[in-house]
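#random but structural
TW: two for the price of one
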Amino acid sequence: MMKDLGVVIIEGSCPGSSYFAAELRISIDEANRIAEQNGYALRFIAEGPD
């Protein structure tokens, strides 16, 4: 599912870093289209100011 949706896991770039995230590497619209086509029970939304 992660590969289909263009999601990658990012871990800290140096020892001791606490940064850990999942980053979407394709557009939200495209990811949602792929999720719907594949029957995945999730959708992405943009955060921040409108």
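TW: number two ↓
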Amino acid sequence: MFGLGPMELTIILAIVIVLFGARRLPEIGAGVGKAIKNFKAGVSGDDEIDVTPEKEQVTDSKKPDA
């Protein structure tokens, strides 16, 4: 894997944890995974790519009387 041994990978992992914090690592991993999935789908020519955001915006159903 690019000539990286276990010691180098451990050092890189430690630097990533220091920079981003342990709590944000799952979010970063999920984002990278989704990006790779969408990239592969785009390269393979799939027409169905889900680009909708995770959280839907809440609209106010109460409108003021005019």
